[in-house]
Amino acid sequence: MKEHDHTGDSMNAARPKAPSPIIEVKDISKSFGSHQVLKDLSFDVQPGEKLALIGPSGSGKTTILRILMTLETIDGGVIRIDGEPLWHMEKEGQLVPANEAHLHRMRTKVGMVFQLFNLFPHKTVLDNITMAPILTKGISRSDAKARAMELLDMVGLADKATAKPAQLSGGQKQRVAIARALALQPKIMLFDEVTSALDPEIVEEVLGVMRKLAAETDMTMLLVTHEMGFAHDFADRVLFFDAGRIIEQGPPDQIFRAPQEERTQLFLRKILAAGRAI
Amino acid sequence: MNVIEADWLGYVQLMLEGALVTVELTVYGSIIAFFGAFILGLAKLSPWFPLRWLAIVYIEFFRGSSIFVQLFWAYFVLPLIGFPLSALATGIMVLGLNVSAYGAEVVRGAILTVPKEQWEASVALNLTKFQRMRHIILPQAIVVMLPTFSNNVIELMKASAVVSLISLADLTFQSQVIRLQTGNTLLPFAGALLIYFILSLIIVYGIRRIENKMAEGLDVVRS
To answer: Chain B window 122-151: which residues touch A at a Cβ cutoff of 8 Å?
Structure first.
């Protein structure tokens, strides 16, 4: 899919072509009230890499996605996307908190798909997808529509363009939500437990779309999931989170077949017992 | 033949002229109240404290003081400090400003009912604050506002009777005129009651139609 080729970025062209991470998370901490959710969290993501974030509920994996989408602020540390600080701006060599204009610019690089789809109920499927490209990128209505129809075709819902979200099943809603995020052509896509709210028999229709996406695009993808089998097949690297820290990370085979840390082993045993086979 | 029968047509015409003034007060007052309610409701949700504070002072002042006194003040005191207004303009302004204070709470409350996931999705799609409000939040919130707006407009129409106290010839004023001229109390006031009631039915029906039109697709989600 040529649409997702972002090599034309003028800022990147000016920089030397050394392989640098597209996401750099450094010493991030985050608390909600007195509860610290992330503790000095650091990791890098390479361009095009597919990352699965696994771990028990409340381990901080969804929080880090929300921080990357600028839906949560950070208490400490620095995140860089494409070499640029996300939550900060550089001013006279110093990092100062980002203003809305900076966040607006940084958000063009990131897209997110939510657990509960979050489609706009008052708009048709087509309007859900075309609205942001028209409003934020100044794309003409006809171009946005053509692109939206391509995306709907890709997710197998071209016949639902004029439907309202309330007329769709959960799986269809989630596929529309994926198409909506893709319409903005982000470099990085965040998937936050995108199948958790779906009935087991329709999980596969959403996972199928994501497999296709992973195979056909060079987008960087971060996936928070409890679907261990899918995480194993989808990811280049798996990060196991517990209590706001990365306990263990590595290729899927290593994490799922031969986890080194006791907490990872315990978590995977529990997941296996719950019937989510790898 | 008594006086009422003799001038029957003339008195009906008088009542209808009064009703027209009441309609004018209601329509123009509601337009001011509608915009006022949005400005105040949004100001009350503003992260900027002075704006929030101004909105709170306005709302509490207009809700907490008598509309009669507000009207007298606008009609009799404003000219003393160089702002003379016609009785109709005074009536429209006072009714509009007064009801906008009540409407502001409706706007604020309705915006807060839109699930936070809708805000988050619009941030993730990189919409600006204005675009989020204009395209995502308000279209959903306005459906929640409309039934209460309908009550507010009816309240405004009923409150418009106070303008008869500054000699504006609205429906109530004309009923009183007919009563004084004919000595008949029952007919003019029964007629006024009926006309107020018919006007309120028109308001309820009209706003319900707008509500149904705007709620397409939303009802199914919320049920």
So the answer is: 122-129, 131, 135-136, 139-140
Is B157:B200 a contact under the CB 8 Å cutoff?
Answer: yes
pLDDT value of position A18: 53
Single pTM value for the model: 0.83
SS3 B7: coil
List Cα–Cα distances, A81 to A44, A100, B118, in angstroms.
10, 16, 25
Rounded CA Rg of chain B:
21
* Burial environment of residue A94 by CB neighbours within 10 A (0 to 12, 13 to 18, 19 or more): exposed
Query: How far from chain centre, in Å, is Cα A154?
Result: 19
Q: Answer yes or no: do B124 and A135 touch at CB < 8 A.
A: no
User: Which residues in B lie closer than 8 A to residue A180 (C-beta atoms)?
Assistant: 125
Residues A263-275: tens digit of each pLDDT: 999 999 988 887 6
Give per-residue pLDDT as tens, B183-199: 889 999 999 999 999 99
Alpha carbon of B135: minimum distance to chain A alpha carbons (Å) = 9
Minimal-distance CA residue of chain B relative to A105: B126
Distance from CA of A117 to the nearest CA of B (A): 9
Q: Give the domains, in start order, of chain B with CATH numbers.
A: 3-215 (1.10.3720.10)
Contact (CB<8Å) A166/B220: yes
A164 inside 8 A of chain B by CB: yes
Which residue out of B114, B116, B122, B125 would a mutagenesis test of the A interface target, given it has the greatest number of A Cβ atoms within 10 Å? B125
Fill in the amino acid letter for A9.
D
Determine the Cα–Cα distance for residues B203 and A65; give it in Å rounded to an integer. 48
The rounded distance, in Å, linking the Cα atoms of B160 and B90 is 11
- Written as one letter, the residue type at A117 is F
